[in-house]
Specification:
8 copies of one chain form a homooctamer.
Chain A lengths: L2 E7 L5 H8 L5 E4 L5 H12 L5 H22 L2 E5 L7 H12 L3 E5 L9 H5 L3 E3 L2 H13 L5
Parallel strand pairs in A: 1-2, 1-3, 3-4, 4-5
Chain lengths: 149, 149, 149, 149, 149, 149, 149, 149
C-alpha cells in the first residue's frame, strides 16, 4: 500500500521538510504547492503578461497554481493541512474543504491557540496534530501498524 | 428556474438580511448556518452532554452544525461566501472549498482589503462582490436578465 | 429546509415512535425499514415462492427489504442508526457503512455499554446519542437553531 | 488482470494468512487493517495524546484506523468480510456496507450459525463462504478460470 | 415514500396494464417506453427524414427512443424488466445492464423456461418473478409492509 | 414524465419561441440563457464594476452567465443546441460538450451547410434536426408516443 | 496511450483469438469472461457447494462470474460486444447496457441478420462491425492513426 | 508528479510539436487526436464500409475518432484547446466543454482576434495563452515552480 500525501498550507517554516525526512523509508509519495512565495504570487503575469489591476495580477497567478493544487489533492489519499502563525491562510482552509468534499482523509496540523477557530475544519478531519513528528507517526502507523517509542 | 442559495460565512452583520430582503420577488430559496453565535458554539454539549476539554466541547458542536451546512451546500445552486472584518473565518473558506469541489457556482463577498489573501478563493468563484446589493443584482440578472439601473 | 431522515436498526422498542412524535411540527420526513419482524423475515417466500433451504428463504426476503432500505438511505439527509440490547444487529452496522460511503450525516443511538464495540461506527458519525429525545433535539437545532431547555 | 483484495473483519484467527498463502502465484494484491489488537485500540492516544474519557480515547484511534480502512476498501476490487465467533464485529458489517455502497464485489466468510443474522450482508454479496480455502478457490477461478479438484 | 418504477421490455402483452391496475392506491409513479411497435420503429424517419438504408432508418428511431428510456431509467427507483416469449429482446437485457450499472433495484419478470439464459441478469436483480401479480405484491410490501393473502 | 429542456445557442432568431409555442400542452419545462445580447455582454461590468481591458470586461460577464448556463444544463433532460448562420458560436459547441460529458440527451439544430463542421457534435447527439418544428415533434413523440401527421 | 479492451459475448467461436492475434504489436490490454462454458456454468456449486434447485445452481455461478465481468468492464476503455448465431445472449446485451451507463466506448460485432434486433444496442455504440478484422482495424486506427490497406 | 496533457483543436499548424519539444525533460505525457485530416475524415467508411450520404460518412468517422478523444480527455490532467485561424472549430469548443464538465484544468490557446468569441470558453479555463511557448512555461512552472527568464 502506497499512501499519496498532499501537504497543504503554510509555506514559511520547514514543516514539509520535517515530515518528508521523517517519513524516509515509508511507502509514501508527497506532493505540495509551489512554496516559493514570490513565484507563486507572480507566475500568472510572468508567463501570460502583466496586469495593471492587482486583482487580475493575483487572479492569473492563483489560477495557474490551481492546476497544481487540484491535481495534488485529487490524487492524494491523505491531505495534511498546516495552519501557521501568520497570514489569513484562507487557501489552507479552502484546500481542507475541497479535500473534505472529495472524501479525502484529512490531518490538520496547527498550534493549540488556533483550536477554536479551526473547529469546523477539525470536525472534518481524521486527526488533529500539533507537531510534524506526529504526522510522521500517523503515516508510519497507518502503513506498518508500528506505534512510536 | 428556482435558484437555491446558501449564505455562508460571517454572522455578525446583517448582510444575509440585506440579500434576502433585496431578493424579494425573485424565484430564490435561501439557506444558511445557525447564526446565533452562542447556540452554534454550545449546541453539542447542550444536547449530548458536557465536556471538560474545550477541544471536544467544540468538536461536538461543530459536527452538529455540519449536518446543516452539508445539507445547505449540497442543495445549493449558488454559494455566497462572506468574509468580514473579524475572526479567522476559516469555516467560510472551508465552505468555499467544499462548494468548489462539488462544482457549485460561488460568489465571494469581501471588503477590498482582503483581496490578496482571498486570491485562491476568488480563482474558484464566478463573481467577487463588495456589497450585498451586488449579490442581489447578480441573482436578479441570472434569473430575469434584468440589469440594475 | 426539509430534512429527510432514515431510521435504521432495532425494531423491538418504540424508539422510532418517540422520535417521530417528538419531532412533530418540525420540517422533517421520516422513512424506515418494514418493522414487522415476521413479515420482514418471510416476505421473499410469501411473494416469490417457498424455499427448502433457510439460506435462500432469508436471501429472497433480504433482497426485497433492500429495495426499501436502499431507497430510504439514498434519499436521506440524515441516517439515524439505533443499536439495542439484543441480536447481532449487523444490518444496522451495514446500513451505517452504506450511509457513510454515500456521505450521509449519521447519528448513532446506542446504550453506553456498546461504546467500545461501536467505535468505528462512531468515528463515521456526526453525533452519538443515548436517548431518542436527543435525536429530536438535534433535529430541532439543525432546523431551527433552538437549543433544549 | 490484477485483483486487489481487502481482507476485513476478525483479527483473532489466521484466516488472512490462509488466504494469502493459498493465493500464492495468483495475480493478487492484498490489503487489510492493522491486526495488532492493542495497537489498533491505542494508536490515537499513543500518537496524539492521552484522553481521560474512554469515548475519546477510542474515537482518536478509530479515526486513525479509518485512514487505512478507507484507502484499502477504495482501492479494492473485492472485499472479503470475515465474521468470527467472538465480539460484536460491527466494524466488519460497517465495512461491508461501505463496500456495497461503492459497488465493490463482496465475499462474506462466516460460520453457518451466523447465517440468519447476516442475511442483509449476504444479500449484498456475490459469494458466501465458510472456509478461507473457498475464498482462494474463488480468486483462482476469477483470475484463471480453473476450478478446484 | 413514493416509488418510481420503469417498466422495461416486452410490448406485446398487457403485463404493464396488469401491474399498473394492480398497484392502484399505492404511492407509485410508472414510466415506460413507447409501446406502439410501429411508431417505435419508424419515429426517426417520420420526424427527421427518410433513410434508404435499414440500418440508419433503425438508428434514427432507436436514438429518439433512447431519450425516453434514459430519462425513465435515470429517474426510477425500481426497474422491472420483462422477458416474453418472442423476439430477441436484447433491448430488455440492455436496459437491465444499464439499470444495474446505475445501482437501480431490478425486478426481472420472465417465464421459467428462460431461467438459465437469464442467469446473469438474475444475478444483478433483487427479485425474479413469473407473474405481474408478484411484482404488484413486491411493490405493496416495499411501500406498506403488507404481505399477500 | 416531465421533460426539462435547455435551449442553447443562437440568440438572433426566434427559434426558441417557435419551439416553446409549438410545445404548448406538452409536459415540458424550458430554460435558456439570457438572450438579450447587450445585457449578456455587459452584465459583469454593470454589476461588479467597469474594466479597462476588454478581456476582463468579457470575463466578468461570461462568468455571471455561467451561473445560469450551468444550472440550466445540469437540470435538463434534453439539451437542444442551435447553430445559426452568424458568429463563431463556440459557446454553443461548448455547451454541447458540457452536456455530453454529463450524459444529457442532445438534439442539434442546424442548417445543412454546417453538417461537416458539426460532425463531432452530431456524433454525441441523439438527433440532428434542421427545423424547430422537428424538435417539437421529437418532444411530442418522446412524451406521448404520437408521430406527426 | 494504452487501450484496455473487454471482449464480451459469444464464447463458441474464435473471434477473441482473431482480435487478439490481429492486434499484436498495438498498445492494448485485453480482458474477457471465463470462456470455458462448463466451468462458467458450474463454478458456483463447485466451490461453494451443490444446490438442488437449478435457479440457485446458476445463481451462485453467475455471481462469481460477475466478479470478473464487473472488473473487466470497469477497467475497460472499449467494450467489444459480440453477438453470434446461437443462444439468447442476454448476458452480452446486459454487458452492453452496463458499459453504456458507465460511459465506455462500445463496439458491437454482429452478423447482419441481427441488425434490427440490435438497434437499441447499436444506438449506444460508437461502431458496428461484422468482422473481427474490423475491430482490429479500429483499434489500430484509434491508437496509431493508420488506416487499412 | 506526472502531468497528463491532451492537446485538442487545430490540426494545420505545428503547435503540438512546439509544445512537445519545448516540454522535453518535464514529467509530462501527451495525447492528441489523429491529426491526419484525410484519415480523420474517412476512417469510418474505410473500416466499416462506404456510405452514400455525406452525413453518415462523417458520422461513422466522427464516432471512431470519439473513442480516442474521450480516452484522451478522460485521462488528462490538463486539456489544452487550440483555436486557429481557419474552419469553424466546433470540435475544439466541444472538447473544451466536455473537459470543463469533467473538472479538468483547461488552457486555451488562441490568437487575440478570437478573444470576444471565446469568452465563454475562457470563463471555464485556468489560463488563456497566445503562444505555444506560454503553454510550455505553464507546464514547467506547475511541475517545477520555475518561472521563465
Amino acid at each position: 500500500m502506497t499512501l499519496s500525501i498532499y501537504l497543504s498550507g503554510e509555506i514559511h517554516t520547514d514543516w514539509r521538510e520535517q515530515i518528508i525526512s521523517g517519513a524516509k523509508g515509508l511507502d509514501v509519495v508527497f506532493s505540495a504547492p509551489v512554496t516559493d512565495h514570490a513565484a507563486s504570487d507572480d507566475c500568472g503575469v510572468a508567463i501570460l503578461g502583466a496586469e495593471e489591476q492587482k486583482f487580475w495580477h493575483d487572479h492569473k497567478g492563483a489560477k495557474l497554481n490551481a492546476i497544481r493544487t487540484r491535481k495534488g489533492i485529487a490524487e492524494a489519499d491523505v491531505v495534511v493541512v498546516r495552519f501557521g502563525d501568520k497570514y489569513k491562510q484562507w487557501n489552507a482552509a479552502f484546500d481542507a474543504g475541497y479535500a473534505a468534499a472529495l472524501g479525502k482523509s484529512i490531518i490538520v496540523l496547527n498550534p493549540p491557540e488556533h483550536q477554536h477557530a479551526l473547529k469546523e475544519v477539525h470536525a472534518a478531519a481524521l486527526a488533529t496534530a500539533e507537531e510534524p513528528r506526529q504526522v510522521v507517526e500517523i503515516l508510519r502507523y497507518v502503513l506498518t501498524g508500528a506505534l512510536p517509542g
